[in-house]
Amino acid sequence: MPELPEVETIVRSLQNPKEWLLAEGQSMRERPGVIGRQISSAALHWERTLAVPTPAEFLQHIAGQTIQNVSRRGKFIVLTLDDEVLLFHLRMSGDLRVEGQSAPVQTHDRLILNFHDDLRLVFNDTRKFGRAWLVKDAQTVLSGLGPEPLELTISGAALYKRWHASSRAIKTLLLDQSILAGVGNIYSDEALFLAGIHPLSAGKALSIEDCDRLLSAVRTVLQKGIENNGASIDWVYRGGDFQNHFKVYQRTGEACEVCGSPIQRLVIGQRSSHFCPVCQPNKY
DNA sequence: CACGAGACCTGTTCGC
DNA sequence: TGCGAACAGGTCTCGT
Predict the structure, then answer these.
(1) Mind telling me the catalytic residues of A?
(2) Integer CA distances (angstroms), A73 to A129, A141, A151, A170, A209, in order
(3) Which of the listed CATH numbers 3.40.640.10, 3.40.50.1820, 3.10.105.10, 3.20.190.10 matches domain A32-142?
(4) Which of A100, A146, A247, A274 is the most core-located residue (most Cβ within 10 A)?
(5) How do beta strands A69-73 and A109-115 pair?
(6) pLDDT digit string (tens) for A175-192?
(7) pTM listed for this prediction
(8) Rg of chain A over CA atoms, in angstroms?
């Protein structure tokens, strides 16, 4: 499910500033945040959800800690606790929700954190790919990530250095989290369309201008995704609206909004890629 | 070392 | 209708 905009949406809902909720006309009871809440106990229903430490150590260490902050790095959700950091990666089907402890446990709930005040935080993950880490230093988990695409510290020229050094398809390079953190299959396809770049283009075939334009396009689609609370497809992840703004993703055979050509689908690096053969001329 | 294929999982949809 | 194949927001690991 989740790429940067979906993860950002979840993080914002977990931060849940009171004023924002009131502006939306929602009460704390309907969309409670987790900052400031103290964990009383935890339950682990699928052991492999926990990357580190062991279940016994986790259950012992987590009890009594208060959530001091919630943030995002790439596609990771970072909960800062008193003594340690709890990180989640939702992978394909993970989700986090906050609810009362009397709510029924759901089929794919994998990890539950109970708070002292009758609320709980639940990690639900149908496909069991998601992971949680409880560590002293978040960097042990996050150190391999490239820069945040929405931060202004990264430039097209810096990406050109990485991309131009590779003969791999730019579609694959966009998914490489060590080059740029947070872009996934939906937003890479949408960004390549916006930039007018064919997904099979080799990194080394891109000019600096191409890289500038592609970084701008990545930022544009990520921002639009965030503004629309992410994308909701199928049964996974609810509340987002960006699926109604896709130009190419999962639109195989439909007419390109710009030129009318049928959108095509290709498998690149074992991921499906959607593109307009006319607006994104092949230059690899 | 860089790259691609397979593995990890469950659920839905598509084609015969 | 039934049943297997294909496919799904991601990333590790292993072999070449």
Answers:
(1) 2-3, 75, 271
(2) 18, 11, 11, 22, 27
(3) 3.20.190.10
(4) A274
(5) unpaired
(6) 999 999 999 999 999 999
(7) 0.95
(8) 20
